[in-house]
Design goal:
- The longest helix is centred in the middle third of the chain and has 71 residues, at 50-120.
- This protein has four helices and eight strands, in the order ααββββαββββα.
- The chain has two domains: 22-125; 130-240, Immunoglobulin-like (Sandwich), CATH 2.60.40.10.
- It is of the alpha+beta class and 248 residues long.
- The protein starts with 20 loop residues before the first helix and ends in an 8-residue tail after the last helix.
- Strands 3, 4, 5, 7 and 8 form a five-stranded antiparallel β-sheet that branches. Strands 1-2-6 form a three-stranded antiparallel β-sheet.
- Pfam families: DUF6776.
């Protein structure tokens, strides 16, 4: 028998044999392998290496350390500025207090100078025995210390001698009451405080008020060794107010 002639295309070239399932499987496997190699290469290119990660971590730690040191430095500067500001405030407060004390001292000295000028100056008004000022300071719940400035410049060079007593007017249990010197001293027939001076003298002592007594007015009585007595009154509010007008 004669072999059958091989089919040919119209152009006369041979027709390739048809591909089966096995060929398609091999082709798909090759494509998958190529895709995996492509992905692996891209990961190698774009993924950071472990050395790069360590370097970045080290750089970040250095930046954090620098930032921490900067913050600590600024906090220290703020603390220093606060301390300096507090010291300045304390120094300014002390300075203001010292200035206030000096001003008060100067005012007192000026008052003293004016007092002496009125008393012994050539143009000072001539006055006989008188009470220039009275000051009272609390020493406890019922005790008071008094300081009375007595003056005279009518008889220059003459010595004024005598005794001084106090009396206090006020209210107690809703009624008017006047405390005599013996009541204030809590001593029957208490002697007065002696004085003896040429131009002025400050007479001091202590008096005691009974419980529930509200003082209103203080009366100062001078009994010279010769001549009539002298009496002057001061309100309790004025007597207890700290005044620089009184001579020392």
């Amino acid at each position: 028998m004669e072999a059958s002639p091989t089919p040919s295309s119209a152009a006369g070239s041979p027709i390739p044999p048809a591909r089966g399932p096995r060929a398609r499987y091999v082709l798909a496997l090759l494509v998958a392998i190529a895709l995996l190699f492509g992905l692996w290469g891209a990961w190698r290119v774009f993924a950071p290496s472990s050395s790069d990660t360590r370097g970045r971590l080290a750089a970040t730690e250095r930046q954090l350390a620098v930032a921490k040191a900067y913050i600590e430095e600024r906090e220290q500067q703020i603390a220093t500025l606060k301390r300096s500001d507090q010291i300045s405030r304390d120094a300014n407060r002390d300075l203001q207090g010292a200035l206030a004390e000096r001003e008060e001292e100067i005012a007192g000295l000026r008052a003293d100078v004016a007092f002496y000028e009125r008393l012994v100056g050539a143009t000072g008004q001539r006055r006989g025995l008188s009470v220039h000022a009275l000051r009272l300071q609390a020493q406890g719940p019922d005790a008071w210390h008094f300081a009375t400035t007595l003056t005279q410049n009518l008889n220059r060079g003459a010595v004024s001698t005598g005794q001084m007593t106090l009396a206090v007017e006020g209210t107690q249990a809703g009624k008017l009451r006047k405390l005599a010197w013996s009541d204030l001293r809590r001593q029957p027939k208490a002697p007065g405080v002696a004085y003896s001076f040429k131009y002025f003298e400050q007479v001091e002592g202590d008096v005691f008020l009974p419980a529930g007594f509200t003082p209103v007015r203080v009366e100062v009585r001078l009994q010279p060794r010769s001549g009539g007595s002298v009496t002057e009154s001061f309100t309790w509010a004025d007597a207890t107010r700290d005044s620089t007008a009184a001579a020392p």
